[in-house]
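so my prof wants the structure for this chain in the tokens format not the other one, which i didnt know existed until like an hour ago. anyway here's the sequence
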Amino acid sequence: MKLLDRFLSNLDSWTSTFKQTRTHRRLVRVLTGLLASTGRRTITNSIMAQGHEQEDWSADYKLFNRSEWSVRDLFASVLLEGVRFLDPDEPVVIAMDDTSLPKTGIRIPQARYCHDPLAPKFLDMQIRWGLRMLHAALLITDCNARPLAVSTAFEPVPAERKPKGIMSPTEEAAFEARKQASKLTTRSVDLIRAMRRTLDGAGMKSRQMLLVVDGSFTNGAVVKGLPHHTDLVGRFRKDSILYAPLQAKDGKRIYGNRLPTPDQMRQDPGIPEQTETFHYGGSDRQISFKEGGKVLWKNGTKGRLMRLLIVMPIPYNVPGKRRKGYNAPAFLLTTDHRTSALDLIQAYLNRWQIEVLHRELKTVAGVGQVQAFSGPANDKVHGAQAAAFSMLNLAAQEVYGGEHDHWRMPLRPKWRNKDTMRISSLTLLTMFRNDLAKSGFFVDPGSWKPKGWILKHRETYTAA
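here's what i got, hopefully its the right format
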């Protein structure tokens, strides 16, 4: 089976999302052009890649502005397709995080000042202008024990702007309601419940869904909003104030004696330390951890009984130095009291793949480069790109098994002597473009060219 055939077969599951079949076909061609085009991934370059630059292109733009379809319906098919690569008794592990798409235009709707992780540390405010996006990714462990992150949600989280002038009490109450609905925690709970409904609708009501998150999502609002058969593993502060649960009921009290802080528990020799083998950083490593038992976090998760796990600092070799460096310890809280600590910690270590996916979406797939100047377009185009890139990765997992096939893929340069554990995104897009060229999916318009002209129409505007 070819990569292109499997990719188009995956996109056929989106047919029921649209009211008209022609809208689905147009979206498939536009997204395929965005993946296959070179340079900036814009709608214009997608039209050029399809060879339609001499035709009416307005329908490609109206596809995101006026057509009535939902990006969440696209990602529902991605989630169900990705679950097929998991064992039946394996939990559905979802990593969640927020990221930003950098923008420069001041009139772009939903744009706001976002945190910039690559900004210099000496700045007072490490921010940049862009679109804040809520991102969820399914973690799949392939045959090489290296997890693969596949996007299952990618939607903007705009800030609610306060109206100018004096507001009446009714207007102020409506503004506060909109402000509460636009919070990251509120949107994340709504997204978690939507993914849970997708699994329930596919006959997986009793299957566990495990969320691995950072400190932004480890709070009472998210934990309280978790649906059935859904657990959370999240990082929290090392100086948090914890309490022990009461051994016996005492009126309305639920908090027992105050416990040491998580960092004090890490340094306490009375708590036994365990060492096991985990897959982290591309290889198996010996990592130590401690189990802190059942705790209550009064200022965070309120009265929900949580389980404390402490991952000890992980040593690594520092280039040019004999002494080893150590990563910061991780203090984890989870609502799952049944799964072993090894599986929970491994799931959290696999969470790093969503950070890798952030980079691949922005630099390889070109998500965020489309110039959308309307609210509906911003809601759809970036998420649709991420969904198409997810379907392409799942198609490669089906065709190549997640391995780099030296017989069917282009030769790597000699200076790259290290074997890759899975297909790189650049190699995947190269194979995808090759299949498109062989199948004739995008036709050459065959327009007039100047005498002696040899460049293809996709490489220049003047050739058309």
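also thought this was worth mentioning. Residues 232-338 form one domain.
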